[in-house]
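Following up on my earlier thread - several people asked me to post the actual chain instead of describing it. Fair enough. Here it is, all 110 residues.
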Amino acid sequence: MTAQKDLVERVRDALRAHNPREVSMFGGVSFMVEDRMVVAARREGTLLLRIDPADAEDLLARPGAHPALMGADRPMGEGWISIEQAALQGPGLESWLAPALTFHAAQGSK
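Reply from S.P.:
Thanks for posting it. Predicted structure:
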């Protein structure tokens, strides 16, 4: 199983209670909750998170976190971060999904 396929399965399981819809975008499989993207499992097995920009500095200080890039060099902005595969092992995935789900919930329903 590829790193991306493994991550997709793990994210799918972790978000099951939120009834996510899966969409191909951002070079991977994005998980939409209530028609808004929460996370994406990218081709190389990294995780793209949509977060509260106010939390970006604290989250980027955690091991394995980097500002998200679109392509090789175009920053996506403060509301997006990328998480390395190594930081997603074991309970790491759930610890990264939490801030994305918190930000999603804070936005309210459409």
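Helices lie at 3-15, 56-60, 92-106. That should answer part of your original question.
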